[in-house]
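Researcher: I'd like a structural prediction for the single chain below. Treat it as a standalone chain; there are no partners to consider.
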Amino acid sequence: GMSKVSERAIGHPHLVGRTKSPQRVLTRLVAATVNYAIAQGISLEEITAETGIRRFDLIEDDSRLPDGLIASIWGLIKKGGRSKACGLHMALATPTSVLGPCEYLIRYSANLKMAFESFAQFGAVVADRTQTGFEESETTATVRIRHPLDETDGGNTGELGLTIFYRLLDECLQNNRLAGVDFLHQANAPKQLYEELFGVPVRFSQPFNALHYQREALHEPMKEADDHLYRYALANIELLQDRWLIPGSRSLLSQIYAA
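Model: Treating it as a single chain, here is the predicted structure.
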């Protein structure tokens, strides 16, 4: 039988079997996608038949579910012939709390550089297989995000995630110095729709989903910068890393496990 630890890391066996994937994503992200599908006229019964998800599975905020469920829900939305740029559309009314504890790390960071570095380090808390990176050039600072789901859900989760991340930064920065946006997928709607939302040039079929900011924005203080709250958010996120046995965790408990 499974050890208690691996059981705790996996959970929801009726859903793991359905998706053939032990990789996880925050429950609140799955719940938001289910709610969006329902708003688009798809019944919970249809969603349960397709994915095995029951309403009960979506209730606990600080938990995670198999990430393959999200692609299955987007498949239902697409089959229903819903509007094309659904990720973008959904992001307009999705609370930034869908990013889970990462939201607070970003909100209370000293500046944009710290926010980018924090997200690059802890993005896997939102979804296991998230690849995040942060790089600077002479003129721009870029945060990159990529997830295998991007290849299977028509880019909808990538659109959703990047747009919510942008909205959060827009709330937190004194001045919005966004310079450009990249998406990994092909445009799901006329390019103009994306450029109206972001107010900057948007490129598609790029190697990553990315937000490019003017480099001088990196050291501007965030509106809610707070060192104590940042450290508190960090402690909470490290505890979740240990609870979920996320690789790359540098917290005390994970070091004890590794010893």
